[in-house]
Specification:
The chain is an alpha/beta fold. About 40% of the residues lie in helices and about 15% in strands. α1 links the parallel β3 and β4. The longest helix has 15 residues. Bound molecules: nicotinamide-adenine-dinucleotide. The site of nicotinamide-adenine-dinucleotide has 25 residues, from α9.
């Protein structure tokens, strides 16, 4: 099996750098998809309560026959469950659906500033970590002001922030802020939800290396020190997206991809204004 890379987190644990994302994967297909990925060598699955497939993730994990400690499972507390008591209940619900004793990493899915509850939710994750229900705690879609508020009020820094990040939206300022605070960066929609796969600059780098566009983009995340969770339900693509450890991009490739960044390259919602 490929000797995959792992990223050290500030709490002493480590996360496999390439994982499988399962957003929009129907629960009844998720078990098979997860088992396929684990067979292909993945050891990291990214789900969320909102994806309604945590049950399938647990089933796939058990079907793989792998020891529990070999697979890293991330889930997230949804916006409706923000607040101290609700978030603690949400963690219990996720543990039950996943049929696990402990979640490797639990994130606040969105800061949802309109709700005004992310600080209380963060305190709940600290409590769940103390209780051993969750091993590492982090956030998703946080901007610097949200990060600084939870760090300043609790003294506990999220291990990572999972944010929209791909060659067309490279988030350089937020990544620099993460580095200053010891927060790792995890890229969601790393392939731009597939939209970047037809980019001519990516296609030309792929042709040069005899690789696919998806592999070039995933390798760009890896070479940039990012944790990356591409999604696919197709077994051949799941395998292709993980087969990125036997080549690297050169300085010229990295410069070309750096040039694809756009200030308005965001595909998903803006965390400051999203009201769901
Ligand atoms: P992605 O960028 O991973 O793109 C996935 C799409 O690209 C697939 O549906 C498929 O159409 C295509 N694709 C994948 N591999 C391919 C290949 N080898 N060849 C051709 N086409 C291929 O998009 P995503 O699902 O939005 O993001 C990945 C994961 O990030 C999600 O599954 C989820 O786990 C996470 N995520 C988190 C948040 C958040 O708010 N925290 C938001 C969105 C996504």
């Amino acid at each position: 099996m490929t000797d995959q890379l792992r990223i050290e987190l500030r709490d002493g644990h480590a996360i496999p750098q390439v994982g499988l994302g399962v957003w929009q994967t129907p629960n009844d297909e998720t078990g098979a998809v997860v088992a396929t990925a684990l067979q292909a060598g993945y050891r990291h699955i990214d789900t969320a309560a909102a994806y309604q497939n945590e049950k399938g993730v647990g089933e796939g994990l058990r079907a793989s026959g792998l020891p529990r400690e070999q697979v890293f499972v991330t889930t997230k507390v949804w916006n409706d469950n923000q607040g101290y008591d609700n978030a603690l209940k949400a963690v219990e619900g996720s543990l039950k659906r996943l049929q696990l004793d402990q979640i490797d990493l639990c994130l606040i899915h969105w800061p949802a500033p309109n709700r005004g509850l992310y600080l209380d939710t963060w305190r709940a994750l600290i409590k769940a970590q103390e209780a051993g229900q969750v091993r590492s705690i982090g956030v998703s879609n946080f901007e610097v002001e949200h990060l600084d508020r939870v760090i300043g009020e609790t003294g506990v820094t999220p291990v990572l922030n999972q944010i929209e990040l791909h060659p067309r939206f490279q988030q350089k300022a937020l990544r620099a802020a993460h580095a200053e605070r010891g927060v790792k960066t995890e890229s969601w929609s790393p392939l731009g939800q597939g939209q970047l796969l037809s980019d001519p600059a990516i296609a030309s780098i792929a042709a040069k290396h005899g690789r696919t566009a998806a592999q070039v983009i995933i390798r760009w995340h890896v070479d940039s020190g990012l944790i990356v969770i591409p999604k696919s339900v197709t077994p051949s693509r799941i395998a292709e997206n993980f087969d990125v450890f036997s080549f690297t991009l050169d300085a010229e490739d990295m410069a070309v991809i750096a040039g694809l960044d756009q200030t308005d390259g965001r595909i998903g919602p803006n965390p400051m204004t999203a009201t769901f």
